[in-house]
Specification:
Elements (H helix, E strand, L loop, with lengths): L4 H9 L2 E6 L25 H4 L2 H6 L1 H17 L4 H9 L5 E6 L5 H4 L5 E3 L2 E8 L26 E5 L8 H11 L4 E5 L11 H7 L3 E6 L11 E4 L2 H13 L1
Parallel strand pairs: 1-2, 1-6, 2-3, 6-7, 7-8
Antiparallel strand pairs: 4-5
Helix pairs in contact: 5-9
The structure holds adenosine-5-diphosphoribose (APR).
């Protein structure tokens, strides 16, 4: 992908860079995007029917098993060149923040340090009743397992539909997004709020906004630069253009 020269200039002069990533950044690692059709046993379920507190209360075993299935997918997945390039980019700017909607932890595994996880992380588990993170519990064969502290059910530490966003992470994301000079929206359909409003807030606050996606989204017509292509090759091309 040839990076437009005006974008290269913006990259070279940028002081504060913010990147928002979505499921499209992990697609080339083999992690299905949130709106990819579910496969196999899970094909008859719509993720939005499983990823809710109501679904968990109605059928905790089913929801826990769906996340166990996705945790295995993520554990087998490897960071792809988009993750690696973003981890390298972090070190090239005076200020760089990565805000992700992804729950797969692949950015951290690729070496990114400044990661704001808006929707939690599938590799972390918490107590459904207390909300506290639980890192180990006695396997008693219960599915889901029980909280060692209160005996309540354990659940993944991810943000479900109909649940509030994590306050600290959301505040950070909007503080960074409205105080940057260059904002990238990468691999996100930009339809789920409040994350989807971040690129528009960045635009409002005068940042140069770049979208990297395979398809167009509600942001496409507003972004200053639109790089249509797979993140796994476009992001490394951006990094290369910085090095010239
Ligand atoms: N490179 C770049 N973009 C890609 C690639 C790729 N290789 N593959 C897919 N995409 C794009 C798709 O075109 C789509 O716009 O990634 C986007 C994925 O969109 P979604 O599946 O809607 O995922 P996301 O935007 O992260 O969803 C946001 O909504 O459903 C909730 O909590 C869930 O975090 C998720 C949030």
């Amino acid at each position: 992908m040839t990076v437009p020269p005006q974008l290269i200039d913006r990259l070279k002069s940028a002081q504060r860079v913010v990147v928002l990533t979505g499921a499209g950044v992990s697609a080339e690692s083999g992690v299905p995007t949130f709106r990819d059709a579910q496969t196999g046993l899970w094909s008859k379920f719509n993720p939005e029917e499983l990823a809710t507190p109501r679904a968990f209360r109605r059928n905790p075993r089913l929801v826990w098993e769906w996340y166990e299935y996705r945790r295995k997918l993520v554990a087998e997945a490897k960071p792809n060149p988009a993750h690696t390039a973003l981890a390298e980019m972090e070190r090239l700017f005076p200020e760089f923040h990565l805000v992700t909607q992804n729950i797969d932890g692949l950015h951290q595994r690729a070496g990114s340090r400044n990661v704001v996880e808006l929707h939690g992380n599938i590799t972390r588990t918490k107590c459904f009743d207390e909300g506290t993170i639980v890192s180990n519990w006695t396997e008693t064969g219960d599915v889901p397992p029980k909280c060692p502290n209160c005996g309540g059910l354990l659940r993944p530490d991810v943000v479900w539909f109909e649940e509030p966003m994590p306050e600290k992470e959301t505040a950070l994301a909007f503080r960074f997004g409205t105080n940057c000079d260059l904002f990238f929206s990468i691999g996100t359909s930009a339809v789920v709020f409040p994350a989807a409003s971040l690129p528009f807030e960045a635009l409002e606050s005068g940042a140069t906004v770049v979208e990297i996606n395979l398809q167009s989204t509600p942001l496409t017509s507003k972004a200053h630069f639109v790089l249509a292509g797979p993140a796994g090759s476009v992001v490394p091309d951006l990094l290369k253009s910085l090095r010239i």
